[in-house]
Design brief:
It is found in: Cytoplasm. The chain is of the alpha/beta class. Helix content is about 45%, strand content about 20%. It has helices at about 5-10, 15-20, 20-30, 35-55, 60-75, 100-110, 130-140, 150-165, 185-190, 205-215, 240-250, 275-280, 310-315, 320-325, 325-340, 345-350, 350-355, 360-380, 420-425, 455-460, 465-470, and strands at about 85, 90, 120, 125, 145-150, 170, 180, 185, 195-200, 220-225, 255-260, 285-290, 300-305, 380-395, 400-410, 435, 435-440, 440-445. The model has no long low-confidence stretch (mean pLDDT about 95). Bound molecules: pyridoxal-5'-phosphate (PLP). Pyridoxal-5'-phosphate (PLP) binds near residues 151, 153 and 291.
Length: about 475
């Protein structure tokens, strides 16, 4: 039935009428009265414009409440949880490490309650915030002392600024790395106030190169773990142990920036070996820096471990105050580090390690178990099967080592042009699913899908409107 525009407009429900529906009541419960009323006003406005343009039956109050709900859902917080099925375990753009339950609980407690952040419970006097992690870091790395800052970039910046301000820092040309997000070693040196002295060549640097560059202006010798690339072929580098000897002889500290670093030997969990912090300390570097949210599997943080006197000097640098971490992260760091005291149960408790060490057979079995349910949801528009794929560690760790994994592969029945709209529709779900497009299929690598989250995953996929996808086909 087509009504004259004026008639239909008169039938358009008022804001109060829509607000009185059960649908709107649920929205008020979830989003609050102010946001819900605003959304209802907006959908009524839109309906009014539409009716003026094309005469039709006015939408009812319930329908308008549904539209308001869609509008509010579209405004859902951007930081809502999502499924990382990209196959990259430590995905920097997706927040790197997923924290252990113990770390989440500790962080929540630190948010909800006062905590002894800089307070010594024994004496009732002022304490130091680093004290919460100092003992654990010493125990886990063998270093004399330790401190923690915002991230590893800050750790490197702080070391450079403390020991090489208006002095020289020596680094091999083969180690002048760029990490994503504009962290470039030469730029950091400049901003830290250090004069960079490059030695050697891209592929070969020798002990004599460092020795010749040392002078009374040298404040620091740097060794940077080439975490996200490999130089192969005719290559030579000076190992940390030898370099520590050279630096010590000149009375200059060696800083070994491990980047990811690891507190345990990963080969124990069937992974490739990444240098451990304990080894780097034992090799003689006076300072070692590493990240909290890479292989370590904790929150974003940067650790500096090393000689007591040097750490004390770092702590006196006013920049330390600008780069320190807050109580929430400190609580999560402490809880994460504590898990490392029990390596036997680490893989079970630390999600990063759990994901990295999942065997292919386990992921493949999960994919086959979920296949029928997923096929039922998307089967009309897409062919679904299980296929082998390769996962990556991510965040620049072990860049050449991939992990055998399994994925649910969604392939359009018709044109390939449906792939990008499918990926977009998956991103738009209330619990977004992020896969990757490869060889004409959308891959959902299940390495990072916990069994406990399978039901949520299927429910999220259930929101997918494949009919709309097909209809919108170009
Ligand atoms: C990742 C990395 C950094 C930066 O660490 P963030 O914790 O991301 O700030 C610095 N140096 C190396 C060698 C790295 O791999």
């Amino acid at each position: 039935m087509v009504e004259p525009a004026s008639h239909a407009l008169r039938h358009l429900p008022a804001v109060a009428t829509v607000l009185a529906t059960t649908g709107a009541a649920a929205l008020v419960e979830r989003h609050g009265r102010v946001a819900t009323t605003e959304a209802i006003r907006q959908v009524i406005d839109e309906a009014r414009h539409a009716l003026r343009a094309i005469p039709a039956v006015a939408p009812g109050a319930d329908e308008l409440a549904v539209r308001a709900g869609d509008l509010l859902a579209a405004k859902a917080p951007g930081m809502r949880p999502l499924f990382n099925l990209t196959g990259t375990v430590l995905h920097t753009n997706l927040g790197r490490a997923v924290l252990a339950d113990a770390a989440v609980d500790a962080a929540a407690n630190a948010m909800r309650h006062p905590v002894a952040l800089e307070y010594d419970l024994d004496s009732g006097s002022r304490g130091e915030r680093d004290d919460h992690v100092r003992g654990l870091l010493r125990e886990l790395t063998g270093a004399e002392d330790a401190t923690v800052v915002n991230n590893n970039a800050a750790a490197v910046l702080l070391c450079l600024n403390t020991f090489a301000l208006r002095r020289e820092a020596i680094v091999s040309r083969g180690e002048l790395i760029e990490i994503g997000g504009a962290f470039r070693m030469p730029d950091i040196m400049l901003r830290a106030g250090a004069d960079m002295v490059e030695v050697g060549t891209t592929n070969r640097t020798h002990a004599a190169d460092y020795r010749n560059a040392l002078s009374e202006r040298t404040g620091l010798v740097l060794k940077v773990h080439t975490s996200n690339y490999r130089i192969q072929g005719f290559v030579a580098e000076v190992g940390a142990r030898e370099l520590a000897g050279i630096a010590d002889a000149a009375g200059v500290p060696l800083l070994n920036d491990l980047g990811s670093g690891s507190l345990v030997d990963l080969s124990r969990y069937g992974l490739m070996k990444e240098p451990t912090v304990r080894e780097a300390v034992a090799e003689g570097a006076r300072l070692v820096t590493f990240s909290g949210d890479k292989l370590l599997g904790g929150p974003q943080a940067g650790f500096i471990v090393g000689d007591r006197a040097l750490i004390a000097e770092i702590n006196r640098n006013p920049l330390k105050r600008a780069l320190r971490v807050d109580k929430i992260r400190l609580a999560a760091i402490e809880a994460t580090l504590a898990l490392y005291r029990d390596p036997d149960r680490l893989a079970e408790r630390l999600p990063t390690l759990r994901y990295l060490s999942r065997p292919h057979a386990d992921i493949d079995a999960q994919a086959r178990r979920l296949l029928p349910a997923v096929a039922k949801i998307v089967g009309t528009a897409f062919a679904v099967d299980v296929g082998d794929c390769q996962s990556q560690i991510g965040s620049g760790a072990l860049p050449l080592d991939t992990l055998a994994s399994a994925a649910l592969r969604l392939r359009p029945h018709g044109s390939q042009e449906l792939l990008d709209p499918l990926a977009a529709a998956l991103r738009a779900l209330s619990h977004p699913v992020i896969g990757r497009v490869s060889e004409g299929a959308l891959l959902m690598d299940l390495r990072c899908l916990d069994e406990a989250d399978e039901a949520t995953f299927l429910a999220a996929l259930g929101e997918l409107d494949t009919t709309a996808l097909l209809a919108a086909r170009p």
